[in-house]
Design goal:
This protein is mainly beta. It has 2 domains: about 110 residues, hypothetical protein (bacova_03559) (Immunoglobulin-like, Sandwich), CATH 2.60.40.1740; about 110 residues, Sandwich (Lipoxygenase-1). Strand 12 and strand 13 form a beta hairpin. About 25% of the residues are buried. This is Calx-beta domain-containing protein.
């Protein structure tokens, strides 16, 4: 019995030593490289904006290395809309931090510019393997909220008012300001009660089941406003949001419920 115990002990010690000797070579081993994130949304005010993304590598060297990225053909952003810096990995480091900046003036007045970057090389690295995960960035203009009277022109294609989150009426379009003020507007429904300030004060006249206009006033100094639409039970609802400057800044036409994107640059 003692002999068996001794053999087992020797084998265990041998296996333990073998495991301890398996050490990754961070200088001469295979180099793995990848972006730290896969997507970034970058709202851009008039003064421009920037974001940082790390590039990680699994080895280090005694000299600087250059990170090479390429713009994917699926990108819609043009070269004047952004800049990229930080493409050098310092000696002895396991990566670098890229800085991507966006240019408000060059961005489209409406919609977003999409930039897709592929990581293609890290110079001076052994047996390089790059994680197949591009970096996707979206740039769009971000403007301060315009104070004044905002007009919401509302329609219902069936002519029986809005049925939003309820088949008998439901909630209205809500606008929540940063100070907690909440506006709620909608087109009246004859089928049931509806919360908020609805046209006709709950009484539907022959025309306000088909179309109507509501106005809210956003005061000076308002820093944030969330516009939320609760839903469209029958696919009949439409509206457009007119800024104090007289431009269409947002809207909806029989789509999904949720937070609305308002173009305050208009």
């Amino acid at each position: 019995m003692k002999k068996y115990i001794l053999i087992i002990a020797v084998l265990f010690a041998f296996v333990s030593c073998e495991e301890e000797n398996v050490v990754y070579d961070s200088e001469n081993g295979q180099t793995l490289a990848n972006f730290s994130v896969s997507s970034v949304l970058l709202p851009t005010p008039t003064e421009g904006a920037s974001t940082t993304v790390d590039v990680f590598v699994s080895t280090k060297t005694d000299s600087e290395r250059t990170v090479t990225v390429e713009v994917d053909p699926s990108s819609t952003a043009t070269s004047d809309q952004y800049t990229i810096s930080g493409l050098t990995i310092p000696a002895g480091a396991f990566g670098t931090t890229l800085t991507i900046s966006s240019n408000f003036d060059a961005l489209p007045e409406e919609g977003r510019a999409n930039l897709v970057l592929n990581l293609v090389d890290v110079s001076g690295s052994n047996d390089l393997v790059i994680k197949d995960s591009p970096l996707q960035l979206e740039f769009y203009r971000e403007c301060p909220i315009t104070a004044g009277d905002w007009v919401i022109n509302m329609t219902d294609s069936y002519g029986d008012g809005w049925q939003t989150d309820s088949a008998t009426g439901g909630s209205g379009l809500t606008i929540t300001l940063g100070d907690g003020t909440v506006f709620e507007v909608g087109l009246c429904s004859p089928y049931g009660s509806a919360a908020g300030t609805f046209l006709g004060d709950g009484e539907c006249t022959p025309n306000n089941g088909s179309e109507g206009t509501a106005t809210i006033t956003i005061p000076e100094g308002t820093e944030s406003a969330e516009w939320f639409f609760p839903g469209d039970q029958y696919g009949e609802i439409g509206f457009e949001i007119i800024s104090p400057n007289g431009n269409v800044a947002g809207g909806y036409e029989s789509g999904d419920a949720g937070t609305l994107t308002i173009d305050y640059c208009k």
